[in-house]
Amino acid sequence: MTKFRHRVFTGTHLERMEQIMREVCADFECEPAEFNGESNHAHPLVNFPPKVALSRLVNSLKGVSSRRLRTEFPELARHYYRANKLWSGSYFAGSVGGAAISVLRQYIEQQNRPVRAG
């Protein structure tokens, strides 16, 4: 979720964010299974091995995406003027070991709400 729940992402931002998060996942030897987002948060579904610390993965996903998005899209600066952060410090992670990947993908796809064009 973005800092202060600001609605900052357009479709273009979300497409680039997905690319960035896929690169981060590759660095961690993780498999990005699905990605979707809205104007103020993202829904990545990631398969990761037990050797990967979830907190490190999330911190990298947020940190790298924040740095790159702010560099590539300077207009985002107006949304994080108070704290100089794009993301809030919180995140949700759930274990879905028994669920079929098709069910999880469907859930994430349904989270998408229209985002303003950009």
Automatic annotation (TrEMBL):
Classification via SUPFAM superfamilies: Transposase IS200-like (SSF143422)
Domain Transposase IS200-like stretches: 1-111
SMART domains: Y1_Tnp
Name of this protein: Transposase IS200 like protein
